[in-house]
Amino acid sequence: MGQKVNPVSYRLGIVKTWDSIWYSEKDYVSYLIEDFKIRAYINKNYSKAFVSKIEISRFPQLVNVIINAAKPGIIIGKKGAEIENISKSLEKIIQNKKVSVSVREIKNPELDAGVVGQDIARQIERRIAYKRAIKQAIRNAIKSGAKGIKVRLSGRLNGAEIARTEEFKEGRLPLSTLTADIDYKVSESLTEMGIIGIKVWIYKEEKERRK
Question: What confidence tens digit (pLDDT) does each residue in 119-149 have?
């Protein structure tokens, strides 16, 4: 029986780093729950910005949140007004601490597994043929410099009565090579027939081990 390992967690400390950069023996559980709530709030309210990664770092009286998004203008708002609203909302989740929110634009969204997965999900929700959406995503990723990409869909595809899994792959995908920079994300498409799960693997390049 094969054991499935998350390609990102498998490479932590080698070519990947953590999304939450903090440690606490006393308040570890409460901090972890706060991180989940922060990410849930941002992903729920700003899904149109194609948020891929949310980095959280903690200091004695400050929580720093960096949002990586393909469309940062939606999060920033007019003259940064939306950023202030996000900070105030997150301060209600995190008590007795100030929250600093900043946005980082994803320069190559075609090479980001989170953005690619969300884009496919949105197209399926708009009733665009899933094969067409996936082939377009694969073509754009390879054109942008990806060495390999794999997309796996699971659910009631095209409204079928029985759920099934389909996989599309192009190029190389060395999952056992720890120095291979492989981006991986899971997205969901909410359709009338149920939820369709979308997994995306993108092999970008070979990196040196982190020192």
Answer: 999 999 999 999 999 999 999 999 999 999 9
Alpha helices in 129-180 (DSSP H): 130-143
Q: Which amino acid is at 3?
A: Q
Residue 90 CA to its chain's centroid (Å): 20
Return the half-sphere exposure (C-beta side, CA atoms, 13 A cut-off) of residue 166: 13
- Report the alpha-carbon distance of residue 74 to residue 77 in Å, rounded: 6
Compute CA 166 distance to the chain's CA centroid, rounded to the nearest angstrom.
21
Pair 19, 54: CB distance under 8 Å: yes
Pull the structure tokens for residue 72. 């940062």
Phi and psi (nearest 5°) for 166?
-125, 145
pLDDT band at 186, cuts 50/70/90?
very high
